[in-house]
Amino acid sequence: RAVRWARDPDGLVAAVSDHTRWKGEPRGRAEAEPRQETRGGERPRRRCELLVSEIFRSVQGEGRHVGVPSVFLRLARCNLSCRWCDTPYTWDFERFDFEREVRRRPLDEVADELLDAGVAHVVITGGEPLLQQRELEGLLEELDRRRAEAGRARLFVEVETNGTVPPTEALLRRVDHFNVSPKLENSGEPA
């Protein structure tokens, strides 16, 4: 399938194909539009907030860190619409209310809550978290800064992704582990 870069209705850049839908977005949001290039190769300005579905403390249940106490940051939006998805409230806004399920949260507020969880293992999941990776870069920088100021080791960070959005160089350098969950034909996505 042909993949291209586009902006979702909130202006977040995503890898999309012809079947990508931003299901049930609240009325008045713009259709996806082509990615705007930056002038002179300068880095796009980082937004200061994340679209968050939930933050909670639990035990990692996937990948090689199964059983590790973790704080989960579940982000909203996904560029796929798998029929058997276990978190459709993060992206299927035809069935779920965007205003109820998603909160725009400043990076410093998200950092506060992650640090207050009292564990050294962060799992960033979704939806598809890499749709907000520029914002994630800022969040991880803030977490590292605060931990360093407190004389503490940086947090272990893993990202759960569907593998369709390539991570930025900054995330490749900072994320300790990626759990990639490719979606096969039985997901309802075209092969």
Verbal overview:
With 191 residues, the chain is α/β, with parallel strands linked by helices. Helices cover 19% and strands 26% of the residues. It contains four helices and nine strands; from the N terminus they run βββββαβαβαβαβ. The protein has helices spanning 98-101, 107-116, 133-149, 169-174, and strands at 3-7, 13-17, 33-34, 49-59, 69-75, 103-106, 121-125, 156-161, 177-180. The protein has a six-stranded mixed sheet. A three-stranded antiparallel sheet has the order 2-1-3, with no helix packed on it. Helix 4 links the parallel strand 8 and strand 9 (177-180). Helix 2 packs across helix 3 (133-149). It is globular, with a radius of gyration of 16 Å. It starts with a strand and ends in an 11-residue tail after the last strand. The model is unreliable at 1-5, 16-22, 27-39 and 42-46 (pLDDT under 50).
